[in-house]
Each structure stands twice: as C-alpha cells, then as structure tokens.
Amino acid sequence: MARKCTPTYTIEFPLHIPIWQQHRLEKKCNMARMVYNSCLGEALKRHKAVKTDKRYRTLLREPTSKDRNKKLADIRLEYGFSEYGIHHFVKKVQHKFKEHIGSLESQKLATRAFQTVGKLHFGKSKKVHFKNAKDDISVENKSNQTGLRYIEGEILWGDKPTRKNPKPKNWLCMPISPKDDDEYAHWALLDKTKYVRILKRDVRGKTRYFVQLIQEGYPPTKRNRKVANDETKRIGLDIGTSTIAISSDSQVELRELAPACYYDEKELRRIQRKMDRSKRSTNPGNFNENGTIKKGRLTWSYSKRYERLRQKRKECYRKVAGRRKMSHEKLANDILAIGSDIRVETMRFQSLQKRAKNTTRNNTNGKVNRKKRFGKSIAKRAPAMLLTIIERKLNYQGREIKKIDTYATKASQFNHVTGKYEKKQLSERWNDFGAFRIQRDLYSAFLIANTKETLDSVDIDLCNEGWNNFIERHHCEIERLKQSTSKTIRWFVV
Length: 494
Description:
By secondary structure, the protein is an alpha+beta fold. Helices cover 43% and strands 16% of the residues.
C-alpha cells in the first residue's frame, strides 16, 4: 500500500544576524559549494562512462520496452550512476567538512547534483554549471532533528556549547523575528517543521541570508484571501505567451501576464555591450581575428568594471523575477476565487521558445522572415510558472488542473455553432459569427470551459446553454479592453 504524502508549504524569513555569524554562515555555504561541485564532477564522470559503454549505446537504438529500460538501468547501476551511488561518494567528501556540514545536508547536495546531471543524461538540458564562489546557493536538511534545524523560534546549526567547549567555532544560533502584525507568519510557525533551508542571495550588491521553513500541513488562510463561492464552477483558461483569457459563468476576462514585470531593455542592452567590450579588452588572446571566441578551454580574467556591470545586470533580473512571481500569485488567487474546476490546454512552451527551422519569405516584399519566435516573451512572462502556482494552490484543496487534449479538441479552430473546424492564422484575432465578432482567445477559453469530462471534445449542449451569457460578458470585456493603456492588450483587440 502506497504511503500517503502529507501536504507541505514554505514560509521564508530574512536573517538579521551579527557580522561574526555572517562570517561563519559564509564559511558553511562555501563548504557546501565545494561538496556540491565535487558531487557534480563525479556524477559527470559516471554519466560519460555510461554513455561510452557499447552495450548502453546499442540498447538506445532499440525500440522502447520494459526489458530494454531495465537493462539500461542495470548498466547505470554498474557504473554507480544513481542517486544512492552519489550518496555513497559524498561520504568521503563530507568527512573533510564534518565539523561544519552534516551528513544529511551533504546528501541533499548530492541529490541536487545527481538530478542536474540526470537532466543532461536524459536530454532535458545541454550543459551543467558548477557553482562559482559568487553564485547564490542554498543548503537544506532532511529532518528537523539534527544539524540545521528550527527549535522554539531559533535556527540552530553546529555543535552545541558544552563545558569542555563553551564557544564552538561552528555553532550558530539565529533567531527568527516575524513582524507583530504578520498573522500569517505567526500561525505558520505553530505547524510542525519538517526541515530547514538556508539561502544565500545577492540583493542590491550585498550578500544576504534567508531561511525557509518547510512546514507540515496546509498554509494558513490570509485575511484578505478571496474564497470561491462555488468550488465546482468551471473555469476555462486559454493561456498564451503574454496574455491569459479567462471564461466562466460569472466572469469573462482577458488579462496581461505579469504586467508589472517591466525593465528598460535599452539600458540592459547597453550594459551587455559594455560587458562585452570590457571582456574583449581584458582577454584579447581568447578571440579570433574575426571577433569569434576561440575553441577549447580558455582562461578568462574580468576587470572590476566588468564585475560591477554584471552585478548591475543581475540585480535587474532579480527585481523582475520578484515582481513576476508576485504578479502570478495574485492572478492565481483571482482565478481560484471564481472556482476550482480549472481547465486548460496542454502546452509545450519550450517548443515555442525555439527558433523556427525552415527559412520563409514575406509574400509582400520577398524579404526573409525572422526565425525567432516567442523566446523573449516567454522568458519575461513565464506562463508555465502561473500554471505551476495554480496547481500548487489546487493541491491544498485536493484538486488538480484538468488538462484537455489539445490535438483532439482544437479549441482555436472549432466553431460550436456550425460544428466545423477552420484553421486560422496567428494574426487573425477574431471569429466572425455574422451579426457580431468574438475575440479569438476569449472564445477558446469559453470552449475549454465547456469540454466534456473525457477532456477530448467540446460539449455543444453546454456551449449553447451558456452562449448568450458569454456574449453579453464578452462585449463588456471588449469595451473595457479598448480603454486599456497596455500595448499588449490593445494588440489583441484591434
């Protein structure tokens, strides 16, 4: 019988600690980085050994089957390319830092390193990166019993003071002090802590430390949280690269994804050009005569000006990431306030990021079309993150997002009035119904909300039942959008 996993949630606090504790924490984080890099290097060696095995390469050419997958797994185990194989390796590495890094913390670092190389091994990534001394890093435990732990309002890490050793060099005792008016934090601290995570981040050019408590149970309800009146109410979401269309019985809306996620692109390009010029001037031997980088292993040196520019660029991206996450959290709460029966098309945003393979020409002027697609928009808006947040919040209710079959339903092509499918160009933003027009994304969300329970076709009877209500709310939404100042929204309603 499978063990039922208990729900968990995370709450974060900044650490306000004296300088001497910051120095000890910096030392521990530096050792954790060394442990991680050692595990990453060992996992890479084992990954390459598996890939060069003739039996492994021969099996990869065979059609997929259970027997073939078992043989591949057995070969990986022979070379120790497994999570527990890296756990066995990290024992010797951790022994050198045992006074500062515990066995459970080192096992977590080993697991993270193995998962990173696992993505490379199974073709989900193209490269792995070792941790630099200036990179952000996190250290976490597996339990709240020993090592890094939270007890009675304090984060403890290291050996406790004793009579023989009243001032141990690896001891840390860092208090957590939530604000007095933060009811959410005070209620969250009453739940059982499963384990603790320490994070190191660069904020405005300074190194800061934060602690995350992984609490057992469901997160407390906030005072201003909107609760759905009818949890069974259907909601159709048609999510794109920069907008999301929402359709339900009570609301029809087209919203921009992460509208607060703005930054000066011109200024960012200037910073990158300055960085490139600085790098070329300090490393002239690493470039060919035509300006391209030489092949092979190269040694790079960076000036102080370059480091300042890199820090400025990193801070820009950090602010954007924070605003984007906050915007998605608010939008997810607004959607869940309508209902919990959320339906969305299955989307592969990674394929939309890739450049087009075929070279095409413009029919009007004969110029070659650009091959770039939606990479910049997806990186800026992060539509997949919104779905992940909604899925996490639904899991607290024991529900999940219902993903309809995109290829079977074809919501963007279907017309429930005629019952026919009609392909449209991406630039065609309206569906013509004779006496009136319906915005394409809003209509797709309406069809998605009215799919059958099998999630592979549209229920025409449900569509006809709510059609008049949808038209009325659709026209009100279009009038609102026409007054919007957002260029992204106005492009969808012109």
